[in-house]
């Protein structure tokens, strides 16, 4: 398991995810957004006023439930607002980052 930083135009949050996700974070995040758009289950849950609303926590739920059910991702630390990754503490600057 490796750490990544995810945000949704708010706080940056460190999560522990399977290695392959951390090494290909953008790919998995984009696959998730595509799944959100095309999955009936996801559309019903997250469609609001003609658009979609989801967060990094929904991405983690998606990984845990559908993609890696035997390698559970989990929250490590809430970093707070980091200006969309521009103001990360030095110890986190090397961690893969994605903003939904």
Structural summary, described in words:
The protein has 100 residues and is an alpha+beta fold. It is built from four helices and six strands, in the order ββαααββαββ. It has helices spanning 19-23, 25-38, 40-46, 56-67, and strands spanning 2-7, 11-17, 47-48, 51-52, 74-81, 97-99. β1 and β2 form a beta hairpin. α2 (25-38) crosses α3. The mean pLDDT is 90.
Entry keywords:
single chain, alpha+beta, four-stranded mixed beta sheet, 4 helices, 38% helix
Q: Profile the largest sheet.
A: 4 strands, mixed
Mean pLDDT: 90
Q: Approximately how much beta-strand content do the residues carry?
A: 25-35%
Shape: globular
Number of strand segments: 6
Rg calc = 13 Å
Give the gist of this structure.
The protein has 100 residues and is of the alpha+beta class.
Can you lay out the helices and strands and say which pair or pack?
Elements: E1 2-7, E2 11-17, H1 19-23, H2 25-38, H3 40-46, E3 47-48, E4 51-52, H4 56-67, E5 74-81, E6 97-99
Parallel strand pairs: 1-6
Antiparallel strand pairs: 1-2, 2-5, 3-4
Helix pairs in contact: 2-3
């Amino acid at each position: 398991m490796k750490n990544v930083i995810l945000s949704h135009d708010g706080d940056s949050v460190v999560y522990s995810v399977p290695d392959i996700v951390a090494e290909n974070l953008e790919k998995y995040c984009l696959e998730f957004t595509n799944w959100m758009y095309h999955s009936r289950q996801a559309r019903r849950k997250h469609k609001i006023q003609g658009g979609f609303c989801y967060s990094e926590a929904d991405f983690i739920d998606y990984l845990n439930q559908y993609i890696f059910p035997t390698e559970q991702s989990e929250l490590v630390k809430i970093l707070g607002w980091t200006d969309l990754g521009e103001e990360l503490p030095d110890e986190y600057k090397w961690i893969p980052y994605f903003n939904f």
